[in-house]
From TrEMBL:
Keywords: Cell membrane, Glycosyltransferase, Membrane, Transferase, Transmembrane, Transmembrane helix. This is Glycosyl transferase family 2. It comes from the Bacteria. Residues 4-164 form the Glycosyltransferase 2-like domain. GO terms for molecular function: glycosyltransferase activity. Belongs to the glycosyltransferase 2 family. GtrB subfamily. PANTHER family: PROPHAGE BACTOPRENOL GLUCOSYL TRANSFERASE HOMOLOG (PTHR48090:SF1), UNDECAPRENYL-PHOSPHATE 4-DEOXY-4-FORMAMIDO-L-ARABINOSE TRANSFERASE-RELATED (PTHR48090). The lineage of its organism: Bacteria, Pseudomonadati, Chlorobiota, Chlorobiia, Chlorobiales. SUPFAM superfamilies: Nucleotide-diphospho-sugar transferases. The chain crosses the membrane at residues 228-248, 260-286. InterPro entries: Glyco_trans_2-like, Glycosyltransferase_2, Nucleotide-diphossugar_trans.
Length: 307
């Protein structure tokens, strides 16, 4: 098998036919044996029927149908577990990732890279808020992690089967695949492209899902927030110590003390804030540890045509 294409699908009924046509145009040109793995992530529309009818006429169309919505990263993970291709492409179903780019990605890989990711030069048809939060997130993340996770890059990329083998051995429940791929290493490079607007439908990534994704990314690849909690604890204690000395001095030596409700209120609120924040940060890590300890399967498959 030359190429596997993994396509996570969540309510994409209007996009799949065109995606399939454009994938065929590109993939058939560059290789002879290939498979498309559609992972239906609990779509509420007719996506699964559309995929099924493609599978009936084309043996290259494989599908994994989840029992409910498990999330984009988990859908990709399920595809990776089944991908047989020497080269594996991860692509969105909404045509925001142009399928034609697979050809240059594949050529670049053949020139001697295990990972070629597609970096967004520009993004069309997305809200200012989404673009800005994404931009800030990637910059914050890169400052917090030791491994270099590429900036402004989604999951659209081509990776070698060697990389897929490694990803399949990473059992963590919180998936941040672009970080995991950076962690794996090998020779990595990128190509730039202009990201188009969605062909049809609406985004499946709500702000709540984006926030979870961001915190998963940070907690999976960085301990900086925990260190921040510790350091702010030291700093605040240091300031408090000086204040204690000053209070004792005023009380016992100069005896010029006044009832100071403002300073008391401020220090209580400030300390309370720092403490809650630190507990919250610890809680984020703790809840993720607890999820991993439970060790549940990552997803439940309703039906698949892959042996
Ligand atoms: N997706 C998914 N499960 C989800 C949300 C999204 O499988 O819970 C798929 C979706 O069908 C698409 C890809 O993940 O193929 C990217 O999602 P989307 O386009 O909604 O995100 P955006 O591009 O707006 O960040
Ligand atoms: Mg999209």
């Amino acid at each position: 098998m030359d190429i596997s294409v993994i396509i996570p699908v969540f309510n994409e009924e209007k996009n799949i036919p065109l995606l399939y046509a454009r994938l065929n145009d590109t993939v058939r040109k560059i290789c002879t044996t290939y498979e498309y793995i559609f992972v239906n992530d609990g779509s509420a529309d007719a996506s699964m029927q559309v995929i099924r009818s493609l599978a009936e006429t084309d043996d290259s169309v494989k599908f994994i149908d989840f029992s409910r919505n498990f999330g984009h990263q988990i859908a990709v993970t399920a595809g990776l577990a089944k991908a047989k291709g020497q080269a594996v492409v991860i692509i969105d179903a909404d045509l925001q990732d142009p399928p034609e780019l697979i050809e240059p990605l594949y050529r670049k890989m053949q020139a001697g890279y295990e990972v070629v990711y597609a970096k967004r030069r520009s993004r069309e048809g997305e809200s200012f808020m989404k673009k800005w939060t994404a931009k800030m997130f990637y910059r914050l993340l890169s400052r917090m992690t030791a491994i270099s996770i590429p900036l402004d890059t989604g999951d659209y990329r081509i990776i070698h089967q060697k990389v897929v083998q490694m990803l399949n051995r990473m059992p963590e429940q919180q998936k941040f695949i672009r970080g995991q791929i950076a962690w794996v290493g090998f020779r990595q490079t990128f190509l730039e492209y202009d990201r188009q607007a969605r062909h049809a439908g609406t985004t499946g990534y709500s702000y709540a899902k984006m926030l979870k994704f961001a915190i998963d990314g940070i907690t999976s690849f960085s301990d900086v927030p925990l260190k921040f909690a510790t350091i702010s604890g030291f700093v605040v204690s240091g300031v408090a110590f000086i204040e204690i000395l000053y209070a004792l001095h005023s009380r016992l030596i100069t005896k010029d003390y006044e009832p100071g409700w403002a300073s008391i209120l401020i220090s209580i609120l400030f300390l309370g804030g720092i403490q809650l924040m630190s507990i919250g940060i610890i809680g984020e890590y703790l809840s993720r540890i607890s999820t991993n300890v439970k060790n549940r399967p990552l997803y439940v498959i309703n039906e698949t045509n892959i042996e």
